[in-house]
Amino acid sequence: MPTGLLRLVGAAWRAGVLGFVASGMDVRVVEVVARASAYRSHAAITGLSQGSHNLRWHAITPSGVPMKFRKIDDERSMRRPDVEPERLVELTEDLDLDFEYSERLLKGADWSDQNAYGVFESGTISDANLSGTVLSPLEIVDATVDHSVLSNGRWEEMTARRLEITDSQLVGWQAQFALASDVYIADCRADFAGVSIGRAKGPVVFERCRFLNASFLGDLSKTVFIDCTFPGADFSRVADARGCDMRRSDLGGVSGLMSLKGSLITSHQAVDIAGELAVAAGFTLA
User: Fold this and answer.
1) Rounded-to-integer distance, Cα 269 and Cα 249, Å
2) What is the largest CA-CA distance in the chain?
3) How far apart are CA 21 and CA 124, in angstroms?
4) Cα distance from N-terminal residue to C-terminal residue, the chain
5) Percentage of the chain exceeding pLDDT 90
6) CA–CA distance, 7 with 270 (Å, rounded to integer)
């Protein structure tokens, strides 16, 4: 294998990417299929041949299937959860105080007003009631949540990677992300919610959500809001908004605009919120 490609494969391995398929750049097809766990790791490289000058990489999951991506816009995409429905085993027992669930399906369950901590990975929560439930600390990885009620719950000290929450009730939900990467929340009512992000390592996307009187804190530098509304929402405690993309949302009624310095908006949005910006900057409108 050419030295340059070996270096690229090595860098990808050190970055924790588990697999690739590459074509071009002196190698027509290179497959790197890696398995890693707490106890073992190995990699296999096959199919070397001469090729063209186009190099394209397609990530592969540990199970050997292509990774799934969601398009954010013409230039960006994000990882989707690696969940294989046919492998899921339905959860029928009550929520454990100290849980570790992998490849499980929680469907139609009532886990409301409980307290627990643990890990949920490679699984699905559907049509479930988790209202008022406190999960702290929580690690949730490769998970989907749909048509569920999380209202007035608290998910704290949360590490979230490749998490999707759709068509769910998030009224009063308090989400404290210690680390967030490839988080997608869509078609949710999140009135009076609190969203805090300690560190954003990858995209955090909110689409078609309503944030009436909600509050945002911390690192929004990798956050994208698409077709969202924020009547009465408070951004005053945002620590870093550089790169936050708000160009496709309605900013009417937002407070704490000065904390959104560095975020992306359109010229039309700037005109629409000129009055709010002037007041936030200390001007008196007469």
Assistant:
1) 9
2) 73
3) 28
4) 71
5) 71
6) 46
Residue extents of the structural domains in the chain: 3-67, 85-280
**Cα R_g (the chain), whole angstroms:** 22
d(CA 203, CA 205): 6
| H/E stretch holding 32 | strand 27-36
Interval 162-183: pLDDT, tens = 999 999 999 999 999 999 999 9
> Tokens at residue 276, please?
């709010």
Rounded (5°) CA angle 277-278-282: 115
Burial class (CB in 10 A: 0-12, 13-18, 19+), 271: exposed
- pTM for the full predicted model: 0.78
* Strand pairing report for 27-36 and 41-46: antiparallel
Q: How far apart are CA 126 and CA 183, in angstroms?
A: 17
User: 244 Cβ partners below 8 Å, 6+ apart?
Assistant: 220, 221, 222, 223, 224, 225, 260, 262, 263, 264
Residue type, 5: L
Q: In this structure, which topology does domain 85-280 adopt according to CATH?
A: Pectate Lyase C-like (2.160.20)
Spatial neighbors of 159 by CB under 8 A, at least 6 apart, are 137, 138, 139, 140, 141, 177, 178, 179
Give the pLDDT mean for 198-220. 98
Q: Tell me the C-alpha distance between 262 and 258, whole Å.
A: 10
How far is it, in rounded angstroms, from Cα 108 to Cα 110?
7
Q: How far apart are CA 160 and CA 164, in angstroms?
A: 10
